[in-house]
Amino acid sequence: MQKENLYNQDSITALASPWGESAVAIIRVSGRDSLSMLSGLFEGRAGSGGRGNSGSPPLTEAKGFTMKHGVIRVPGSGEEIDEVVVAVYRAGRSYTGENSAEIFCHGSPAIIKRILDLLYEAGFRHADPGEFTLRAFLNGKLDLTQAEAVNEIVRAKTDRARAAALSRLSGSIERKIRSIKDGILKILAAVEVRIDYPEEDLEEEIVSERELEHWQEELEKLVSTYGIGKILQEGIPVVLAGRTNAGKSTLFNQFLKEDRAIVSEIHGTTRDYLEGVVSMGDIPIKLYDTAGYKMPAHSLEKEGMKRTDRIIRASRLILYLVDASTGVNELDREFFSANQNSKTLIRIWNKIDLSKRPCPVGFFPVNAKTGEGIIKLSEVIVERVLGGRSLESAEPIIDSIRQKKLLERALGALKDFRTGLSENIPLDVLGVDLKEALDALGEITGEVTSQDILNEIFSHFCVGK
Amino acid sequence: MQKENLYNQDSITALASPWGESAVAIIRVSGRDSLSMLSGLFEGRAGSGGRGNSGSPPLTEAKGFTMKHGVIRVPGSGEEIDEVVVAVYRAGRSYTGENSAEIFCHGSPAIIKRILDLLYEAGFRHADPGEFTLRAFLNGKLDLTQAEAVNEIVRAKTDRARAAALSRLSGSIERKIRSIKDGILKILAAVEVRIDYPEEDLEEEIVSERELEHWQEELEKLVSTYGIGKILQEGIPVVLAGRTNAGKSTLFNQFLKEDRAIVSEIHGTTRDYLEGVVSMGDIPIKLYDTAGYKMPAHSLEKEGMKRTDRIIRASRLILYLVDASTGVNELDREFFSANQNSKTLIRIWNKIDLSKRPCPVGFFPVNAKTGEGIIKLSEVIVERVLGGRSLESAEPIIDSIRQKKLLERALGALKDFRTGLSENIPLDVLGVDLKEALDALGEITGEVTSQDILNEIFSHFCVGK
């Protein structure tokens, strides 16, 4: 499908920084006429106090990669909305490839709302999620794997996930795919020569078996990185469970303190748990602190227990804490027998300082308050989560289920070709398999694409990206 | 005190956009050596894909108000952290007045953390709250009322509050104060002439009584704007109360929908209420949705009731909802008799569609589900909150308690001078009063200041501002 058909010529705008109070907020605009449309709201300010850009040309004549200091004004009334700096980017040398600008205003929700409203009135449309990046793709600034990486890099939870996404952003997957495609194209060319001149050299191998095996391996290796990519990008849910007062929140806070991480509370009518993302051995661990187990006294608490159970079921690993000073009781034993699968359960003997009882076999001793045993516990968690796999990969790591499915389609087609070859199926029939493989690879990078595919990809983006 | 003594020469950095995942994040750096320090981490990128700034000078030689495209790298290993754009500002023509820069990176917490860590390693110190603006003040870019306005503008909740803060940022208070100071200085000069030449023209009025009265009125008017300023900036707490199922949450959501406002949940171990800020007649109304009243069944619920009571006591206005289909019951009556002060209570007859009972006298009929009666209710709320006052003011509106106290000190001194004059107290004694008034006014704009005052002011700022 033609890229041009997908292209929307109107000018778009969106907040690019998170919503909230802060020093600075960024509002993006992009589109062929965006600079002239914006210039109706912007008034450059002469160098008052030395901050301005006195004597500089108006916005529409500003050079790319320069900034203008001034104010945003209501066109009719002249009312000043905010003092701002506007960064100007010129078509060809901008993120989207179009004329575009970034407005740096004070990070006040009242100001952000007001400026966006003025931009709408001036004819800007609010951008769809990922629409800036979609335009960058349509303008040939990025291939589709790079466009996906833009979103993945924003969502990266640990440094390793960031590095993997950055490598994708720099085009590592696109280069890999291109090399595989070139290899398969060469095979296809050989096959087509043989179709055109079937009489020549019948004894000679049409394509090298070794080469076919090589490209198949390359595809398999790339597919196999998806498991790591998914762990790196999405993280592993790990839940803290145990009776009330077993020290779950203390351990939760201790883990977060180690990592200086940010706790995000779960939104909803009733908040029964906290979520915090910590990096353990470069794996993002999504840690859940739940309501404690106890004999439910009334229906409200029973409801809470149910929600805790739901989180436990959704987690990959359960850290079950027992207070060493009170020991294992009936409720704990019930839990253990209900969760016998040792792969997902780590039993923790907490408050070792408060008790003389020795740590029982199968338990892991910690002192959540002081952090004693915590580092070793992290290592045990990482070991369980990886299960023998390694995070290291010589290949670029893929994180997109879309890319994985297409790689598998290419791989399947290549295998079909090999089988067909060994079964002496006519070459003109087999050629279709190679073309199918090339098609799937082309779809990964976006050479072959459709509106539906693009909608699917970009709808998962942040607005403003 | 000398401004120079307060001045810290080191280079500072902080995140200037809100923490969170977003398209773009902004990291600020400032300090005499900030650009050369940053250049060790930054590598400009030639115009690959047309986005770069090929052939442009390195960061340290970049002109002010220009942007550089490139990557942030770990100095030793060369590892790439992110693709960024750096905005360069030169001493004299920057926000702080120093060399400074803004790094626009992908809005990923992992990236923000990593870049900040690299900046710390490169010698940057994490900025204190408001330290960028403090430097702007110390470098003479802003007077103290403008510096305070920077923070007030970020915190502005409605458009009217934003406009008032922007006017302060543009120096409206500083200009007003200066005109009052000039007036008082002229009076002081006349007094001093008379002290030096006591024999001349004893019958002539030393200073015009009318002039004294004028400056006193000017000060009084400015002081009186504080009430409006406080309402505009901080908003008015209004609580929704009533029995369970009276429709509090429905009304809460209806108000927010009208205003397209953002709900922020209250952080804490137990979240019993929601807070949303809506603008009614340009007044920011902080709306609280609380747990419903009922006969507490157990201690946990009693605890919840207590917290609801606390919010109700802290609110300026109570919207008490009664479900029209069930009518007023014992619990409602108890609440009404406990909160007889009609100034703070608005009784609401909700679900008018579900009941044939007429709305009782003293109740306000609404249908929270459909929004019927909501606009009128907003008007009633605004009327109650303003209590006859007007939001309009010809004067610049002050919002800072610090400024208010200093204005009152100046006002008190001016009144003392007038009283002394009428009591024929010696002029050399009275001169002290005028100097006291001038001192107080000088402290408002920051001509006279101390480390303690500055610490107090800037510690309330966002980090990164």
What's the total helix number of chain A? 15
- Give the strand tally of chain A: 14
Strand order of the largest sheet of chain A: 3-4-5-6-2-1-7
The biggest beta sheet of chain A reads:
7 strands, mixed
Distance between the termini of chain A: 24 Å
Query: What structural class do the secondary elements of chain A suggest?
Result: alpha/beta
**Average pLDDT rating of chain A:** 85
Shape of chain A: flat
Question: Which range best describes the helical content of chain A: under 10%, 10-25%, 25-40%, 40-55%, 55-70% or over 70%?
Answer: 40-55%
H/E element order of chain A: HEEHEEEEHEHHHHHEHEEEHEHEEHHHH
Spans where pLDDT lies below 50 across 5 or more residues of chain A:
47-54, 260-271
Fold blueprint:
2 copies of one chain form a homodimer.
Chain A: H1 3-6, E1 12-15, E2 22-30, H2 34-39, E3 42-44, E4 66-73, E5 80-89, E6 100-107, H3 109-121, E7 125-126, H4 131-138, H5 144-155, H6 159-169, H7 172-196, H8 209-234, E8 236-242, H9 248-259, E9 263-265, E10 274-280, E11 283-289, H10 299-314, E12 317-323, H11 330-338, E13 345-350, E14 363-365, H12 374-386, H13 401-422, H14 427-445, H15 451-458
Parallel strand pairs in A: 1-7, 8-11, 8-12, 12-13, 13-14
Antiparallel strand pairs in A: 1-2, 2-6, 3-4, 4-5, 5-6, 9-10, 10-11
